[in-house]
Amino acid sequence: MHVTMRRYESIDQSRASEILKKAEENLVPALSELPGFSSYSLVDSGNGVMTSVSFFDTAAQADESTRLSSSWVSEQNLETALPTAPKITSGPVVVNKTRELVQA
Fold first, then answer.
1. Which range of residues forms the domain containing residue 22?
2. CA–CA distance, 65 with 28 (Å, rounded to integer)
3. Cα(3)–Cα(54) distance, rounded to whole angstroms?
4. Residue 100: what pLDDT?
């Protein structure tokens, strides 16, 4: 499994709700259709900072998600809302634990 984190800073806070809505309606469905998709989360840390975390099976698939995300920013006309390029951290997951779902 491979993870990519994209940290966006200096976000136009007056457009935060627009970014979140567009991400939920457009970006997440597009990412979830990519091969190897496992999960995606977007964290709003406040003060103009948001971080996305996505999990894919391989590094190549995770890299494709970064290309898709970059294109999405342009397609959604969010360049002024997200004025700086994200800081990207990516690598293989070396330790992971998730809660097991219990069937009722």
1. 2-92
2. 10
3. 6
4. 81
Q: Which class for 11: exposed (0-12), middle (13-18), buried (19 or more C-beta within 10 A)?
A: buried
What is the CATH classification number for the domain harbouring 87?
3.30.70.100
Q: Is residue 99 part of a domain?
A: no
User: Using CA atoms, how far apart are residues 40 and 56, in angstroms rounded to an integer?
Assistant: 9
CA distance 91 to 72: 22
Q: Per the domain annotation, does 104 fall within a domain?
A: no
For the chain, how many residues are written?
Answer: 104
pLDDT in tens, 6-35: 999 999 989 999 999 999 999 999 999 999
Number of domains in the chain: 1
Q: Quick: pLDDT tens for 43-102.
A: 999 899 999 999 999 999 999 999 999 999 999 999 999 999 999 999 999 998 888 877
For residue 80, give both structure tokens.
Answer: 């002024």
